[in-house]
């Protein structure tokens, strides 16, 4: 390789070495760990208190074993050994809250434990029955398996909360420290580097896998929520789409009447003025243009799902067709009662269409979700508009709500809001269900006065027996 090629590689290596401390600081200190929801929050894991209790119990048991590991056989337990064992166990428990700081504490305490062991390791002790038999530290001290377990536990809790790259960096530092201690303290018993590597690697792999599983479940929950929102939004748009198609016929009818009246009006007036003819002609032209625009809009709405040709010319239903609707529902096996209160008056076609659809959807929900129940439909003609109330008794047979159920309530709410009314739905004390819609209507002053006078007298009620 040429000198020009070696120089950039050497420069990159030197830059990497100089930047290693800063990278280590950012990876294993300054950057926070993954945030876990606190207890009481909506997505807090229910297993965390149980895991914390088990971790504390395990830490106490390992602390006892670790105290024995740091004390010679036959000698009294010294306070440095107890202090180090307690600190290492506390660092393990602290990993539940501060995994990065707990791992650093466990790493530093591993060095302190070796120093305590070296300071308390005698070269020989007198054997009770034989005169002055030298005992090496390998005989005096057991192998520090508990210390490796504490370090592996801290690494496991760290891998649960950080990215895999940061966990691998912590594994490399832990293995480098284990190698350094094995080389610098040959008289002391050491767990083999292979065993340490297996314990630390297993902790890393297990922690990283559980973290990936947690993140995958979190992403899945987010996707499920987004899917539910998108489904609700699509359902809302479909309901508005259907309502717009139905109201097109109503609006188109009015525009056609306006056009015809504007065309006939000049013939009903003797010697109409040119100004009147011009104004009526303008009204007719505007009505025809509006009707043409309505047909274009309807063509867009029906582009994806065009109904049959016969359905396009079918008039939209009104309250006059409630009897036929209830008859068809009864023939399907649903017990329905219809009652009408108040003085019936002519209503706008949009109000009658909305009232009909609300009753239709309510009875469909009863048949679908309350098998064996009976329903009651109440139509109330009031001074300020129309009230629609549909109730049903408790179902005889249990019928679980299917996914996406009660989407019909969305269409009822849209129709009611379109007219500036109110819709109330909810369960009844006896286990049934109620749908009540108030559809406001503005009547002429003479009609309103007559309605008020009619409501002052006993209310007329018609009952359609089932």
What is the strand content?
Answer: 5-15%
What proportion of the residues is helical, as a percent range? 55-70%
State the strand order across the main sheet: 4-5-3-2-1-6
| Rg calculated over all Cα atoms | 41 Å
Q: Structural class, from secondary structure content?
A: alpha+beta
Unreliable stretches covering 5 or more consecutive residues? 124-135, 306-312, 401-405, 445-466
Largest sheet: 6 strands, mixed
Kindly report how far apart the N and C termini lie. Answer: 99 Å
Give the topology string: H per helix, E per strand. HHHHHHHHHHHEHEEHEEHE
The DSSP helix count reads 14
- Describe the global form: elongated
Q: Find the count of extended strands (DSSP E, 2+ residues).
A: 6
| Rounded mean pLDDT score | 77
Question: Please, could you describe this protein's structure?
Answer:
The protein has 466 residues and is of the alpha+beta class. The chain has helices at residues 3-30, 48-69, 79-94, 99-119, 137-140, 145-159, 164-184, 193-268, 274-301, 309-312, 322-331, 349-369, 408-418, 445-456; strands spanning 335-341, 374-382, 385-392, 422-427, 433-440, 461-464. It has a six-stranded mixed beta sheet with strand order 4-5-3-2-1-6. The longest helix is centred in the middle third of the chain and has 76 residues, at 193-268.
């Amino acid at each position: 390789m040429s000198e020009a090629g070696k120089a950039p590689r050497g420069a990159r290596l030197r830059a990497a070495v100089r930047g290693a401390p800063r990278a280590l600081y950012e990876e294993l200190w300054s950057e926070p760990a993954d945030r876990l929801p606190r207890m009481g929050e909506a997505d807090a894991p229910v297993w965390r208190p149980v895991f914390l209790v088990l971790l504390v119990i395990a830490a106490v048991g390992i602390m006892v074993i670790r105290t024995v590991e740091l004390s010679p056989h036959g000698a009294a337990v010294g306070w440095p050994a107890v202090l180090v064992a307690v600190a290492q166990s506390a660092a393990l428990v602290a990993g539940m809250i501060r995994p990065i700081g707990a791992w650093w504490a466990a790493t530093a305490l591993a060095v302190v434990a070796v120093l305590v062991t070296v300071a308390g390791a005698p070269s020989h002790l007198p054997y009770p029955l034989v005169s002055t038999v030298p005992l090496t530290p390998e005989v005096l001290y057991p192998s520090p398996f508990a210390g490796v377990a504490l370090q592996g536990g801290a690494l496991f809790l760290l891998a649960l909360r950080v990215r895999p790259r940061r966990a691998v960096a912590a594994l490399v530092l832990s293995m480098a420290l284990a190698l350094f201690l094995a080389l610098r303290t040959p008289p002391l018993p050491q767990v083999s580097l292979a065993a340490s590597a297996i314990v630390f690697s297993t902790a890393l792999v297990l922690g990283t896998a559980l973290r990936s599983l947690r993140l995958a479940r979190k992403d899945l929950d987010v996707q499920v929520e987004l899917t539910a929102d998108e489904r609700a939004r699509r359902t809302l748009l479909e309901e508005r789409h259907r309502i717009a198609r139905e109201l097109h016929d109503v609006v188109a009818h009015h525009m056609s009447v306006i056009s015809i009246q504007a065309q006939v009006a000049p013939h009903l007036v003797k010697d109409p003025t040119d100004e009147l003819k011009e104004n009526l002609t303008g009204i007719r032209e505007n009505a025809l243009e509006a009707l043409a625009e309505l047909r274009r809009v309807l063509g867009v709405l029906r582009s994806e799902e065009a109904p049959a040709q016969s359905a396009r010319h079918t008039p939209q239903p009104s309250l006059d067709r409630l009897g036929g609707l209830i008859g068809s529902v009864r023939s399907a096996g649903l017990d329905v009662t219809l009652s009408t209160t108040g003085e019936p008056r002519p209503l706008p076609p949009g109000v009658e269409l909305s009232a009909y659809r609300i009753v239709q959807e309510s009875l469909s929900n009863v048949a679908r979700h309350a098998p064996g129940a009976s329903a009651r439909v109440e139509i109330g003609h009031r001074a300020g508009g129309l009230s629609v109330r549909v109730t049903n008794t408790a179902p005889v047979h249990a019928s679980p709500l299917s996914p996406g159920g009660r989407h019909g309530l969305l269409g009822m709410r849209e129709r009611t809001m379109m007219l500036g009314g109110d819709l109330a739905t909810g369960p009844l004390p006896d286990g049934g269900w109620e749908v009540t819609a108030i559809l406001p209507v503005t009547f002429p002053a003479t009609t309103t006065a007559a309605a008020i006078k009619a409501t002052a007298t006993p209310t007329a009620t018609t009952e359609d027996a089932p």
